[in-house]
Amino acid sequence: MKSTAIFMILAATTVAAICFSGGMTAEKGKFLKEEIKELKKKTRMEIVCNAIAGNGKMKWHKGEQRRFCLQEKDGLKWDFMLKYINWGTNTIKTKECMNGMEKEAYGCKHGGQTGYWNWEYMADPNQGYCEDFGWL
Question: Which domains, from first to last, does the chain contain?
Answer without folding.
Answer: 13-127 (3.30.430)
